[in-house]
Specification:
Oligomer: single chain
Strand content: 25-35%
Distance between the termini: 69 Å
Structural class: alpha+beta
CATH class of one domain: Alpha Beta
Shape: elongated
CATH superfamily of one domain: DNA polymerase, Y-family, little finger domain
Radius of gyration: 34 Å
Strand order of the largest sheet: 14-15-16-17-18-19
CATH architecture of one domain: 2-Layer Sandwich
Length: 495
């Protein structure tokens, strides 16, 4: 899609200028005021970009002028690209006045290619933008047809690339102006003039670029476009028959989108970890809303509850005309996994650490999801096992939204409470028959051990060998003590 009058169209929308006045955008270069963009009325009167403002006023005394705003043009074009996401998630910027839109597999949602391109231009025209659009098998061909072919709308059928491009100027291959001028000086004015030329002789004079551009336009070489946002693997969209202003209408459409998206995820054996809702307003604005989950999920009702707390943040403006729901982040998920997670209540097991706070009790998972969407999943931490037999290094804390490598909790999880730093105690005997901790003496009735742990020499750690004991005093309290050359230390409490 090419917007030939983008800067002046944008300025006219923002300034109360009569529609029958010619308009130009002006910027100062080297102390001279030059025209940087001209609308169709100014161009018809002979005023073109690059002309001095004095010459332009001599041609059109009633000329309206406004300061050029390249930064504002670029920002508004980026917003327009977001709005074009209603047609396809693959949208890329093309310079300062164009967009690439990859509609592969999306045209049928709008009634076909002809209906899609007509709807796109109609909506842009309603907002005051002159647009030329072309649909072709290759980005290069679409670019050339949109800018140089006759007619504002062109749909190029497959197999007609060479014939459609033949009569266009060589500048339609997106060559540098100096290179295109040199080709024309040699008599190579049309793209068809390049067809019979030996590629080697063309490369010797002009390099590889002309041949590469020609191959890309004709589909002989791949030319992927780089979208502004990564395309989600799973996305569903719905164009509303009438714009909606009510929160209930938005919620109803969202519920349908969730149902369709969850069906696609179930067929692929995937569960959503982050969902992005895009609401396209009639004024060209896009409202985004994202929710996350602590574990893979694809239950429409549960996901709808996460969105319900945020729907009041959506400002529909003059109405929302289309909505899209994307699973921006997914993880493998099976029906068997759902059963195991909901039925598992054991403390041990290989999955407890990697999905702590994510699997198991569905009520806990729902609570974590709501808390994460309110506070941010990065602010919620979970414990995961780490490859170390030293107790103080065997567990680490990571944010809930950070993927941790798979690891297994040890069969003996250790004490319920582990001190950050072991506390030295005064003990009698080996194993201790009694010890003094925090001014209180504990007489031991039962002892189990020792469990010997040596320093991790491969990490360069130094220290004494530790002998850990499980001790129980007269009141039934259980302690985890270890002895080394420096004395006895209390490292944790079992109860």
């Amino acid at each position: 899609m090419w917007l030939p009058r983008w800067p002046t169209d944008r300025l006219r929308r923002r300034q109360p200028i009569p529609s029958d006045w010619p308009l130009v955008a002006v910027a100062e270069f080297g102390g001279r005021a030059l025209v940087t963009a001209a609308d169709s009325l100014a161009a018809a009167g002979g005023v073109l970009p690059g002309a001095s403002l004095a010459d332009a006023r001599a041609l059109l005394p009633g000329l309206a002028t406004l300061p050029a705003d390249p930064a504002g043009d670029a920002a508004e074009l980026a917003r327009l690209a977001d709005w074009c996401g209603r047609y396809s998630p693959l949208v890329a910027l093309d310079g300062a006045d164009g967009l690439w839109i990859d509609i592969t597999g999306a045209a049928h949602l709008f009634g076909g290619e002809a209906a899609l391109i007509a709807d796109l231009r109609h909506r842009l025209a309603a907002r005051g933008h002159d647009a030329r659009a072309a649909i072709a098998d290759t980005p290069g061909a679409a670019w050339a047809i949109a800018r140089f072919a006759d007619g504002p709308e062109t749909i190029l059928s497959s197999g007609r690339l060479a014939a459609a491009l033949a009569e266009l100027p060589v500048s339609a291959l997106r060559l540098p102006p100096t290179m295109a001028a040199e080709l024309e000086r040699l008599g190579l004015r049309r793209i068809a003039d390049l067809y019979p030329l030996p590629r080697a002789s063309l490369a010797r004079r002009f390099g590889l670029l002309p041949g590469e551009r020609l191959d890309q336009a004709l589909g002989r070489a791949e030319e992927p476009i780089s979208p502004r946002l990564p395309a989600p693997a799973y996305v569903v969209r719905r164009v509303l028959a009438e714009p909606t202003l009510e929160a209930d209408g938005i919620a109803a459409v969202l519920q349908r989108l969730l149902g369709r998206l969850c069906e696609e995820l179930a067929e692929a054996g995937q569960g959503a970890r982050r969902l992005d809702l895009h609401c396209y307003r009639v004024d060209g604005r896009v409202i985004r809303l994202s929710v996350g989950t602590s574990q893979p999920a694809r239950e429409p009702r549960a996901l709808a509850r996460l969105f319900a707390e945020r729907l009041d943040r959506i400002d529909p403006g003059f109405g929302i005309e289309a909505m899209a729901l994307a699973a921006a982040r997914v993880e493998a998920m099976s029906d068997l996994q759902l059963v195991l997670e909901r039925g598992s209540g054991e403390r041990g097991g290989g999955e407890r650490g990697s999905k702590a706070g994510r699997a198991g009790d569905p009520l806990l998972a729902s609570f974590v999801d709501r808390l994460g969407n309110r506070l941010g999943f990065s602010r919620i931490a979970r414990a995961i096992p780490r490859e170390s037999h030293l107790p103080e290094r065997a567990v680490s804390r990571v944010a809930l939204d950070v993927e941790a490598p798979p690891a297994r909790w040890p069969d003996d999880p250790g004490p319920l409470r582990l001190f950050n730093r072991p506390e030295q105690v005064e003990a009698d005997g080996d194993p201790p028959e009694a010890f003094l901790w925090r001014r209180r003496r504990h007489r031991i009735l039962k002892a189990e051990g020792p469990a010997r742990i040596a320093p991790e020499w491969w990490r360069g750690a130094t220290g004494d060998v530790r002998d850990y004991w499980r001790l129980e005093d007269e009141e039934g309290r259980r302690f985890w003590l270890y002895g080394e050359a420096g004395g006895w230390y209390l490292h944790g409490l079992f109860a």
